[in-house]
Amino acid sequence: MRALKVMGCDGFNVAKSMPLYRDGAIFPAHGCGILWCMWVFAKVGTRLAREVSALQALRPFVESIYFPDWSDHMMNRRGNLKALATAAALVAGSLTISVQALAADTIKVGVLHSLSGTMAISETVLKDTVLMAIDEINAKGGVLGKKLEPVVVDPASNWPLFAEKTKQLLGQDKVSVIFGCWTSVSRKSVLPVVEEMNGLLFYPVQYEGEELSKNVFYTGAAPNQQAIPAVDYLMSKDGGSAKRWVLLGTDYVYPRTTNKILRAYLKSKGVKESDIDEKYTPFGHSDYQTIVADIKKFSAGGKTAVVSTINGDSNVPFYKELGNAGLKAKDVPVVAFSVGEEELRGVDTKPLVGHLAAWNYFMSIKNPANDEFTKKWAAYAKAKNIAGHKDKPLTNDPMEATYIGINMWKQAVEKAKSTETDKVIAAMAGQTFTAPSGITSKMDEKNHHLHKSVFIGEIKADGQFNVVWKTPGPVKAKPWSPYIPGNDVKPDEPVKK
Hints:
Layout: H1 2-7, H2 10-16, E1 21-22, E2 25-26, H3 32-48, H4 53-63, H5 77-104, E3 106-112, H6 120-139, E4 147-153, H7 159-172, E5 177-180, H8 184-196, E6 201-203, E7 216-218, H9 227-235, E8 244-250, H10 253-268, E9 276-281, H11 289-298, E10 304-309, H12 315-324, E11 334-336, E12 356-359, H13 368-383, H14 397-416, H15 421-428, E13 432-434, E14 440-443, E15 450-451, E16 455-459, E17 465-470
Parallel strand pairs: 3-4, 3-5, 5-6, 6-7, 8-9, 8-10, 10-11, 11-12
Antiparallel strand pairs: 1-2, 12-16, 13-14, 14-15, 16-17
Helix pairs in contact: 2-5, 3-4, 3-5, 4-5, 6-14, 7-8, 14-15
């Protein structure tokens, strides 16, 4: 009771004025069952929020309730109801405080990846990568003394739904940061929401550039960190000295914009318009017989290479058709930007040996950081019984970019001593992390992109990649391609809106 008096609670005075007050104890006359329930709820509330002073002060009061022979301590009905109402209000208030305290004890992290639909083949594993990193961070004490709490949603490869789920994460769930998206069309859907609500998105996949938002950190590759080097390699003697080009992609913003850049780049290198063929298919497309036949016919006109920006589960039928048609790498090499270890899991890769992928990381890269990363993932996949990976664990480029992103975010939050968006953005500038690719990855001080090494790998018979070319060191991203007119005057840092 002294604790309640100190708190200034009306319950003290109300209780003391009643006949039930005897030497610091409350003796119920009626409603014993109700008071017993209240006592149980108060005990639960105490366990939920031991650090909340209000509930701690209430505890002696509640625990003083016991049940002697109630016939000796009769009270009028009105007084009894007053006692019940006062105690109930105190308990309810304390439980409300405890829930709020618990919420404040975690930092919520949004996970926005398609777990169903055409992009699930690629994105599901990124959700698991975020969860692995969160478990690792929590095991080491969390961030700012608080545990990270993942909030996982499934936008289901539905681009407008990405925007709705983002509104939910930022407005309802109150997440401090979002890790998510794979396609540029999903990121474009999310972009106005994170900007309007001043959220924070970490985007882990290569993209077409032509965007620079203060609310987005691009941990994947810009065109000069992937597409341009891939074309340079295929034009070189080592890459086959390609003269003719098939630009084949899924029909959305990333392939069309990337191919616009590549077409301009090829022309700057002397490639004629007639030596460039451009083809697009819808998401989820599965019939590539005609397209592969057309590629074979086009290649009769000179040494030809295919640049593939096909995305999602369409990669499986495309690569199967390459194998069925006998289109070998030595004749018509295919370089892809959205096919990796995960997408090749369900494909017979023996006929695909020698075809290429341009990424900024491969599982096959040998260095201590990658050894640790792959072992960590294998153990996590087995412990969590992750389909496919529990028996055959694979890592890939967007997984690495995701892992780098969440660890850099953690470092920035600790530097800023806050999860407030603008403070974290400022603290992200210049952050470094020892990446599984083998480099010290750095977030650019201005343009919200990672400096990344570029690797080109050949598909091996086991579905892994053999690195055949790499940049001497990390490459700074150019979000505004110089091969699109007008980009030369655009700033290398986000414009504040």
